[in-house]
Structure prediction request, 199 residues.
Amino acid sequence: WLYNIVINVPSLKYLNFVDFYGHDLCLCENMPEVTEAIVKVVNKSPKKLLESLPSVKNLYLCLTASKPSMLQHRIEFYHLVHLEICQHSPGWWDLLTWMLDSSPKLQVLRLNKCKERPCFISFIEHCRRGPSSVPECLRLHLSTFEWKYYNGRDEEKKVVAYIFNNARQLKTAAFSVQRVFTKEERFQKHKELVSLPRA
Prediction:
């Protein structure tokens, strides 16, 4: 059965919110002191929850079946400098571009797999075009980009190409691949990444 969750903790510093059952959220107050948050939500839109984290600096997001309507709302994360996103979530590319647009001071971006429970739908079938204007964080602040479990598929290479083409302050890019690849396959993927043009 479903129920509402009310969070009223104005002095909270760290939030780890995991909901794989699709509960509704009812937040009666902001959480202005939260600087680090882990948010894993299935089915329901986490819009209310994210709006309640205006001061978050470190954020891990795993949103499976995120509603497109959530991405139509503008939520500014002015203090966010470290973002990690589960890239196996359906619609993760839309979520990524939305977060880049909403996080003007972002310095570290990590793409990862869901750590505790596998997401229900695997990779997107195609990578959509990037935002028409380059997000401020890419032009001015992003210095570290990491991708765990990178497979080198066409849609993934498009994401990397977009980051490389627009992240003017990028200093470090790190990729780890699945162990099923042979040494030759890993070398080929490394060669493809190195050959991509960079800003």
Observations:
- Helices lie at 47-51, 92-102, 136-140, 154-166, 183-195.
- The CA atoms of residues 10 and 31 lie 5 Å apart.
- The mean pLDDT is 80.
